[in-house]
Amino acid sequence: MSIIKNYLYNLTYQIFLILVPLLTVPYISRTLGADAVGMNAYTNSIMSYFILFANLGLSLYGNRTIAYTRDSVEERSTRFWEIVTLKLVMGVISFVCFTIFVLFYNQYTNLLWLQSIQLVSTAFDISWFFVGVEDFKRTITRNILVKLLSLILIFSFVRTPGDLPLYIIIICCSGLLGNLTLWTYIKRYIRKVKISSLNFSGHLRPVIILFLPQIATSIFVSVNRLFLGGLSTMTETGYFDNSDKVIRIFLSFIAAIGTVIFPRIANYFKKNDYKKVTLFMSQAFDSVNAISIPIICGIFSISTPFSDLFFGSNFDGIDIVLSILSIELLFMGWSSIIGQQFLVAVDKPKGLTISMVIGVIVIVVSDLFLIPLHGAVGAAVGSVLGEFTISAIQLIYVHRNNLVDLRTLFKDLWKFLLGGMTVFITANLTCHLIKESILQIILSVFISTFSYAITLMILKPRVTVNLKNQIINILEKKSR
């Protein structure tokens, strides 16, 4: 049951990492406007490359390293301080590079300096350690308080388009404060070590290997905003950014699965227990399908009333962008489990790197053709094509290298697709029968969720059967 508990803890953590900006989207969309939202997205995309360099793949590497060494306090402590030192050094180097960049780049200078607070936040981020030891509970309370504080500050002080700098300060500083508070828990797990015992050379090669797909991932995530800002307008950039924020909150439900499974797979792989590695892999894949497919069908059904209510009249037509982007949830879920979690956990990052590089090429070519003609809609199509390419290549890689049996992974996919069809049909029928936007959304979600649950109860996919058995076992233990 610890997997389920960790999933719920991590799900809460992931949601709160992005919950505040999501909750403020309706307010910010109306207060700042599409242009200001676009400028924030554009400058944040530029900053993401310096953050990437500062991180150097150390967070993902840190997750795996701590998962490998968590049974030994001495080794765990040594590896922690080595990785933390490397992160601080890379943070300083990245900030120097950023300073040089700003001196030569004459656009949005003030906003870029404010975004640079994220570099400091990255340098002091140790959330990777808690993922490695599978402790998701302790980080939740403090992050909730920090995010709620930023929410209060945004609603209190951000009132006009001219308040964009203040908005960036609030968001960036809340992230920094959240990362700093994690240090208060570290004494429970880490001991002091002698500086002379630290050895950094052993980390360089695996970190660089993991850094390569991280570069491709960062380019993939930010390229749409950069191309929209350069080939289209800031308004179109704002359309895409707001749609992407909504998709990211749903992605947190899916990403939490991989984050929880990762340390468990890495630990079993280190112990050469390949049977359990395969078991957790298939369970995670089924869970992704079970969650992402009904969400996609639901978004397609209620995107219009949701967009009108959530974004306001300034973002007319954003429902099309949102609907298209929702398709990538399924492919992002697959690549999260296969690439970001499984291939890294079993020390096979080559497949991840290849898939990300080809995915970047696909999205760049797509954006060059589609964005000048279709703006945010073109960027959404390019994003979906890129995510599909990444997941397809990863599936081919694990199949050809006999790492995973694809028939096992896709065995229950048809059941979730059938359940998704019931969601689409019931939600659309509800929207046609009811005209009020709020009622359309509430009743569509409630009725379609009920119909999906009934469908899965009838079809009995493996993931629901396993969940039912675990719940029964827990109830039986408590009744004794």
UniProtKB/TrEMBL annotation:
InterPro entries: Polysacc_synth, PolySynth_Transporter. The chain crosses the membrane at residues 7-29, 41-62, 83-105, 111-133, 140-158, 164-186, 207-227, 247-266, 287-306, 318-339, 351-371, 377-396, 416-435, 441-459. Keywords: Membrane, Transmembrane, Transmembrane helix. It comes from Enterococcus asini. Pfam families: Polysacc_synt. It is found in: Membrane. One of its GO terms (cellular component) is membrane. This is Flippase. It is a multi-pass membrane protein.
